[in-house]
Amino acid sequence: MILVTGVNGQLGFDVVKELNKRSIDCLGIDKKELDITDENAVDDYIIKLNPECVIHCAAYTAVDKAEEEREICYKINVNGTENVAKACRKVNAKMIYISTDYVFDGKGDIPFEVDGNINPLSVYGKTKYEGELKVKENLNKYFIVRVSWVFGLNGNNFVKTMLKLGKEKESLNVVCDQIGSPTYTADLAPILCHMAQSEKYGVYHATNEGFCSWAEFATEIMKKTGLNCRINPIPTSEYKTKAIRPLNSRLSKRSLEEDGFDLLPRWEKALERYLKEIRGLF
Ligand SMILES: NC(=O)c1ccc[n+]([C@@H]2O[C@H](COP(=O)([O-])OP(=O)(O)OC[C@H]3O[C@@H](n4cnc5c(N)ncnc54)[C@H](OP(=O)(O)O)[C@@H]3O)[C@@H](O)[C@H]2O)c1
């Protein structure tokens, strides 16, 4: 039995869908069933359920808001993850923890390796890294999977925002000097299912293949949907946000490939399939 937290979020939803598709016994839960910040509740729940693996997709993900809500972000991403990791240890379950490109500072222009220099620029990035440390401190049987620029059916994401604004506006300013890889949850979910059944523990990066800027991503969204909205590329310095984001979010997938996990498809193809999936919603 595999327990998936954050089932109402983007990734958790598709992970449960993929496990069901593969007829793997699983249970998806969210805050209503279990608040991960409640240590005793997490213990009781996981000990009673006795899963062989927990895929921990629940998180505080509001990157800008986190700069003002430090405590709640810390509580969910660090204490919550620690609670899950400790409970996993008690039942000898493996844990798959989802982390982020925002643990890096984005210096340079080459892809970060899994053991690259950690230096988060934001509260969110710091808490996600501290979450990684809690997993490592408490468990031997763990996967830490850093992902980036996530889009899925459930919840809000950049693609949905662009579709909405693209219908309302003739042009949009979008940053062109943050480079990374969009990641479609439906492409990520099969890798996580594979990990849940593997013992090749460690730290991995998993994103769709190829790199682009947010402006290039936005341009592709408009092109593929035929929306008549011009994308004006602007530097990050002209687009102020509360949280500082890394300019170079390129992640190396070397360890994923070397350990026999499939690389994800190109991001443009992923976007094409995603736009089909959400057709009718927009
Ligand atoms: N989104 C991205 O671009 C991105 C990029 C890199 C890494 N990641 C990581 O990828 C993972 C999945 O992200 P996502 O985009 O799928 O996140 P998401 O859509 O924001 O979903 C997160 C889920 O966690 C739940 N949650 C929050 N606090 C909780 C608590 N105290 N107890 C139990 N559940 C709680 C949320 O419930 P409520 O909505 O009810 O609060 C939500 O359903 C996260 O670890 C995230 O840090 C995401």
TrEMBL record:
Domain of life: Bacteria
InterPro entries (UniProt xref): dTDP_dehydrorham_reduct, NAD(P)-bd_dom_sf, RmlD-like-bd
Domain RmlD-like substrate binding positions: 2-278
Keywords: NADP, Oxidoreductase
CDD domains, sorted: dTDP_HR_like_SDR_e
EC assignment: 1.1.1.133
Associated pathway: Carbohydrate biosynthesis; dTDP-L-rhamnose biosynthesis
NCBIfam families noted in UniProt: rmlD
Family of this protein: Belongs to the dTDP-4-dehydrorhamnose reductase family.
Role played: Catalyzes the reduction of dTDP-6-deoxy-L-lyxo-4-hexulose to yield dTDP-L-rhamnose.
Name of protein: dTDP-4-dehydrorhamnose reductase
